[in-house]
Structure formats: C-alpha cells, structure tokens
Amino acid sequence: MNKNTDEHKHPDYKKIYYSLLILLVISIWGPVFALNIDNRTMLVGTVLLTAFGVGLIKATMVVAWFMHLDIEVKVVRRLLAVCIAFLILLFAGVAPEVLCFDGENRDADPDPIYEYPKKDITKPAH
Amino acid sequence: MSETYHPPLATSRKSAGLPTARLGTWWVVASEVVIFGGLVVSFVMYRMRHGEIWADQASHTKLYAGALNTFVLLTSSYFAVCAHKAAEVGDGKKAANLLVRTILLGGVFLCVKAYEYTSEILAGYGPKADLFWSFYYTATGLHGFHVVAGMVIMGFVAKDAAKGKFLHRVECIGIYWHFVDIVWIFLFPLFYIASGL
Amino acid sequence: MTEASEDESQKHAQEKQSSHKCSKLRSWLFSTDHKVIAFQYIITGMLMAVIGGYMAYVFRMQLAFPGEEVPGFGWVSPGNYNALVTNHGTIMIFWVAMPILLAGFGNFLIPLMIGCDDMVFPRLNRLSFQIFFISALVIIASLHVAGGGFGGAWTAYPPLSTNPDYNLTPLGAVLWVVAVALEFVAFLIGGINFVTTTMNARAPGMGMMRIPLVVWMIVIASILFMVSVGPLIAGAVMLLSDQLAGTAFYDPTNGGDPLLWQHLFWFFGHPEVYVVLLPAMGVVAEIIPVFARKKFFGYKAALYVTIATGVLSFFVWAHHQFVSGIDPRMAHLFTVTTLLISVPIAELCFLFIATLFGGSIEFRTPMLWAIAFLVEFLLGGVTGIYLGSSGSDIYFHDTYFVVAHFHYTFFPIAIIGMFAGITHWFPKAFGRHLNEKWGKIHFWGTIIPFNFIFIPMFFLGLGGQHRRIFDYRHFPELALNDLQDLRILATVATCVLIAFQIPFVINFFRSMRKGKEAGENPWNATTLEWSTSSPPPHGNWETLPTVHRGPYEYGIPEVKEDYLPQHIETPQTSNG
Question: B19 and A17: CB-CB below 8 Å?
Fold first, then answer.
C-alpha cells in the first residue's frame, strides 16, 4: 500500500450533491419569499434561517463528506475549531466598539456621521 | 534541480496518523479560515452597524448571477471529490479528466464574476461607490484570487495525475477546492441574499 | 531493528547520496537543508539587526544632542526621525526577532530535536526564506523611495497610515505595508512547516510528552502566529486598498472606523509578543537543565502554562487601546485579563528557578545569558502591571515608561534569548567552541549598558516625557537639564552596547575556523541533536535515532554518567 494515501469508504457523492442543490434552491427562495412578510421579526428570522442556517448546513455537508472531516483524525477537527473559536472571540471583542458609535459614554453626535443616501436608492433591484 | 530532488524521509512519517501532505493542506485551510474570517467578521460588524442602509446597497447585487456561481462551484466540488475517488483506486486518467472539468467550471465561475463586476461598475457601483461595495470587491476579489490559484495548482496536479504520478495530491487539492467552495457558500448569503435585513 | 525502520534507513541512504550535485555557492543559496536555511535566516536577521541598531544609534544621538549632526548620518530632519523610529520598531520585531528566534532556531532545532532528517516540506521551507528575503529588501527599499520611509509608527494607525496628506510618504507607507504582508506570508508558510513536521515526523518513541520544551514552544508560537495573523492580513488588504484605491474601510467620514484597524492590529500584535517570547523561553528552558545538571522541574506544568499563556494572549489585546476611546467597561475587562496573563508567565519563571534550585550550576556563557534573560525579563514583566491597569495607563500611555517597559521585554527576548541560543548551539552548528573569555566580556558589555539605557527611560517616562517627539527643546517642561542628563546617559550607554557587539562578531567568525574542537556532545546534554556529529551531516544522522525516554534525564542515581541521552536504549549502570 502506498504510504501517502489511506483508503476509506466513500459515501454516495451524487446523493450529497443533489441534496446540496435542493438546499441551494431553498436558500435563494427563502429570502425572496421573506420580502412579502410584514412582520419584521418573522422576516429577519426567515432570512437568517434560510440564508445563513441553510448555508451553514451546506458548509457542514461539504466539510464532512467532501473534505472527509467525518473520518479524519480528531486533531484536524480541533485545529479548525480553535481557529473558529478565536474568530468568534475577535467578533465579541471588536463588535462592541465598532458597532456602537453613539453609546452613553461617548459624545453623542446628533447627526449621524455616515450620511445616506448618496445614491438614488429608490432604483429597483436587478 | 527538481530532477535530483528526493523528498526527505520525514515526509513519509505519520506520527499524527494522517499523511503529511493532507495534514499540511489542513493547516493551510486553517490559516485561510482566519484570513477570510477576519474579513467576514469586519464585514458583519459594519453590516450590522449600517443596517438598513447597506441592505439597500445589497439589493443591487445580482442575486441570480451569485446563485449561478454557487451552483457552478458546488458542481465543481462534486467533480473534485469524484476525482479523489478515482485517484484512490489508482485511475489517474479518470482523475485528471475530472480535475480538468473542475478547472473549466472554475473558469465559468470567473466569467460570471467578470460579467457581474463589469455590469456593477457600469451601473455606478464601483469599489469606491460605497463602503459596502468596497467590501464586496475586496471579499469576492480575494475569493476569486483563491479560485485562480486553485485552478493553476489543479492544472499541475492533473498533468501529473494523467501520468499516474503523485495521485495523493488529488485529494489535497480537492480539500483546498472544497474550502474555496465553502467560502463562497458564506459569501453568497452575506452579499447577495440577505438584502431583506 | 524492525522492517519499517530498515526500509527507512535504506531510503535515508539513497536520499543522502542524491544531494549536492551543483556548485557550492549555488547549492548553499538554494539548499533545501533545514540547517542551511536556519543559517540563512539567522544571518539575514543579524544583518537586519545591524540596520536596526544603526537606526537606534541615530535617533538616540538626535535626542541627546538635538540639532547637531550625527556622526555617520548627518543632520536628522523630523521626517527622518519618524522614519527611523518606525522602521527601527518594525525591523527589530519582524526582521530580527521573528527570523532568528522563530524561523532560525525553529529550522535548526526542530528536525534535530525530534529525530528526523529534514523538514517535511523542504522546498516550501526554502520558498519561505526566499519570500522573507524579498520582504527584507522591500523594507530597506521603502527607506530610499521618494518621500522617505514610512513614519507613522510600527502600529500604522489610520488615518496617518492611509492618507498621504498626513504621513507625507505616499510610497514609503505602501511599501511598508507590502513588506510586512510578504513577511507574514513567509512566516505562515514556515509555521505550517514547523507544525506539520513536529506533528507528523517525530522519531519512533518520541511521544507527545518526550518532545523538548523548545520545540513545543516554537510550535505553539507558530500556531499563535497563524491564528492571529489572519485577521491582520485581511486588515492589511483593506489598508492597502485604502492607500491605493481610496476606499473608506478606516475612514469615519465615509462609514468606516479607524478603531477596526487598531483592533485587528492588536489582535495580532499582542499574541505576536508571545510568538517571539515563547521560542526565547524555550531556549532558556533547554539551557538551564544542561548547566544546572538537573531534570527540568515540572515538564508538564511548563507545557500547560505555555498553552495557557498562548490562549490568554488572545484575550488581552485591547490593553493597547485604553486611551483610544474604547468603552471604559471594556477597558476593565481587558485590565483583568491582562493582569491574569502574568500568572502563567510567572509560573514558567518559577519553574526555571525551581530547576536551578539545588542544581550544580556551571556559569558558562549560555547559562549566563539564560539567567540574565530571567532577571531582565522579570523587570519587564513587573513594569507591565502598571501599564496593564487601565487607570494608571492613562498617565503612562505613550510615555518613555512604555518604551522602557517593552524594551525590557523585547531586549531579553530578541537579543539575550538569541545570544543564549547561539552560544549554546554554536558547537553543534560548527563543531567548535566559542571563546569563553570573549563571550563573557561580550555578555557583561551587553547586559550592563542595557540597564543603563532603559532604567533612565523609566524615570523619563515618569517625568512625563512623551514618545515620538523629535526635539524636546520645543517643550519647556521637558527640556529641563535633569531630564536631558538622563537622555545623554541612555545615549552613551547605547553607543557602549553597540561597541560591545564587535567582540561577539570577531569571536563568532574566529571560532568558526579556529575555536576549540567540540565533540558530539560538548555540554553532556540529553536531547537528540547532541547524538549526531557536529556539524550534523546532510540528513542529520547515519541511522535515524529512536527515542527511549524524556528529554531532561540528568542526575539519575543508577546511571554511571550524570545524564542519560534520549536515544540510548539500555543505560550503563554504575554497578556494571
């Protein structure tokens, strides 16, 4: 046996591919459909769920079965988890600063710094 | 120089339980995760900060071009994993053939991207039009650069695989390609379909 | 011998024969051998240290004797001063500390200490050095372009770094970012190589808990670097596009936020301190057991506190931004984490001291450097407490107290750690000893002036002397004679320190040819690199070693010698 490969069982890639395509259709259709929802919370929920939730499922499927992380040695999973954990830390530490530009402890600026609209945003979407 | 080159013994050892080439590829992927992660984290922060105003900007991206590109990359990933399956049973010819199809789909992806860029810029949404568009061009540009890099490397791997050499590399370039695909899976909702927020 | 290892040794012999077919210089320049690449890194790093030291000399002279011509440079303009200070910092961290400690020692030690013939990706290793070398050329070039070198401090905060109207160096600033980005790429490639080698290419029997501490620490440092630098690479891409394309990532008037850069920079910048600290700590951890003739006290504890330090180092970055207008509640949080990180590092220092305790200590040059590292680094660590507390930092921020503090950490790391490592492994690398007497002269000539440079700076900082000021005569409250005397003292000490590096250079090159012959194992040490000939041949060993025990087996009663190397299978008992 060649030292540089280690053979393993293959899942049915065609099946995975088709289910990925179905998920893709859901993730496109969901947010478009959501535009008709009046309730803001429902709208945001639907968009987040269909766009990012389904995206997460797609990514997990690709990682697990195309990149074979499901049968990979554990250390690989750990190193990827560490990278993602530190990214979450970065977001948690920076977001309070960058997101909040008119907090209680700052000089409140009555005019928003960022003035919109610069462009004609009433133009219809493509 | 490359003819006289023999990999050292160290390369063939497997203390961690997986082939060295694949372990190295995983580390590359891990370091790429933080590079794209840093960009995405920055974008998400600004996106939340500028809320509805950026949503209007986001509605000007071409949803169906993005969807087509997702489809193209998913299909190319499917070919890449089939190439890996073929390489594992020693069928270098078939693996090379599938890799070439992957490269071609990467080319299709870039063409769609080029069409998008052109029409956005002609419509007045260039990189300086707004911070949203700066992020759009930076993130998709960096991703596109990775697509090009993947295509070039895959070309070399396919050339060797056709002769039946270095078949273990097919799996490594596959892992990298799937990673590029996953980045797109996240960029697509971020820039294209979450405009309702 | 098992079948697998027979197969290994056959391949090993084949590989060794196939090497060295082209001319000598060419084969040295384009070698894939990890030892050659290590020398290339160390030599490039030392040359860059000469440049960085020269810069320090010029701006120290300007501060001590403002308005006068500096011998060897001429009249210093404000723009020159800014460029010198900025590039002194950048070069000393990215082109001296990183290549020598991480890449140089990492390349030399990892394959030798874990018992394999080379890095797992030798050609990537060479590529990594080549990219690093180009980045060094780019940073030097950036000093000579129109407008001069970048002068916006090594932190490159926008808008100073993005807007040429402010920094007045349209080309220098861009080249600076390009050089730093290239350097990051080089060390990413190098780091992947280190980590993969250590994970996958260990000698048979080399379990996780038998890896020498320096290898552990270099690997942890590489991982820290890899995880922290990613967001900064993304940030650097944004900075470049702000500079070149005029986008507004960091421009608040168009929706960006300059704080984002500060966060991305320090999210990398603080772990970076530990990226260079850990290899230096590892070098000291190797030297102390050898010259105290005692087993390392608490190997596992040292490993775990190193990992704890690495993880904690990601939680402290905003203590650099206490006066940047961040939320005071955030500042409290980061004060707590900053003070917390001193716990594992102090623990590591205690473990070193506990190793020394009761040992039979021999004060050879490497040991002197190792102990000096502990003492001086402790001072740097203790002064950090004041700066880590968000209250007192408001007063200390951007004064010379900060300058003195981080030089008390970086000088022990980069200079003392480097000399400790070089004096310790010189016999292995060249097969000859360094001259002990000149080594000690160099040691004392470096350590004493070092304290005379930076202790006055603590007082200057307490006196309110702000950093980044070109000529203190413009500020009446800072132009007092008392303060000026301290500045002159620091400058004279700088010149003395630089002058005392000459004996080292002479000693280094003389001993390479004419030093006393060192055998395989001049220090009677136990780790694997001492089991091959000095200098090690291409491929490192005739037959690759097998490991039978942990790395620090000194003073075992049943054994005849006072040490038991890792590769020896059955110990010679004192009875037999």
Answer: no
